[in-house]
Amino acid sequence: MTHIAVTTWSLEQTAPTDLLPAAAPEGDVRIVRAEVPSPEFSRFLYASVGGDIRWTDRLGWSHARWREHLERAGVETWVAHDHGTPAGYVELTSGDDGVVEIEYFGLIPAFRGRRIGGHLLSYGAARAWDLADRWPGLATTKRVWLHTCSKDGPYAMDNYQRRGFRLFDTKVEEEAEVATPGPWPGAFPA
Questions:
Q1: What are the C-alpha distances in Å from 71 to residues 64, 135, 186?
Q2: Separation between Cα atoms, residue 117 and residue 148, nearest integer Å
Q3: pLDDT single digits (tens) 105-149
């Protein structure tokens, strides 16, 4: 089995004023919260966005596991639509003591390079900061964080930093190299 070195960078914002919003793209781009937990839709987003960049950790999740995750207090999925078509998403997960993770963020490949990503990240980070307003009983957000890695797109780190996220940790680990799964088995050649 072949192994590759993967660098993971963790970034954070520690105040709402850290957020540096991107301009909204031209055209009919809307961001809407998926308020009804739907394992099918969330798996579609996960596989479609991450299929070409080797997101594999949730591919084996059962329907019940997806539902359990999505029904947790403080888990939200915000979906960008371009002319009514899902273009990408940001998933927020509330942790302890007012810490919110942008657990997943990205665009379906056909929608990359259209200035949607900066806008979606800006919107998602703003929703992380006001998450407790929508979830009575959750602590007010004190910190928003995320991680990206060397397997992600070439513009990911730059987008995070331009939105006001600051690097706080870097790790390099060896990982088994896996085939690009695509949005469904066999979608991309090996």
A1: 10, 12, 31
A2: 14
A3: 999 999 999 999 999 999 999 999 999 999 999 999 999 999 999
Q: What is the DSSP string of 62-89?
A: -HHHHHHHHTSTTEEEEEEEETTEEEEE
**Following DSSP, what letter does each residue of 17-37 receive, concatenated?**
GG--PPPPPSSSEEEEE--S-
Q: Residue 151 in 3-state DSSP?
A: coil
Determine phi and psi for 116, rounding to 5 degrees.
-80, -35
Q: Which pTM value belongs to this model?
A: 0.93
In the DSSP assignment, the letter for residue 16 is: G
What is the SS3 assignment for 100-145?
EEEEEEEECHHHCCCCHHHHHHHHHHHHHHCHHHHCCCCCCCCEEE
**What contacts 100, CB < 8 A, 6 or more positions away?**
74, 92, 93, 94, 128, 129, 131, 141, 143, 144, 145
- What is the DSSP secondary structure assignment for residue 38, as one 8-state letter? -
Label residue 153 by pLDDT band (50, 70, 90).
Answer: confident
Three-class SS state of 157: helix
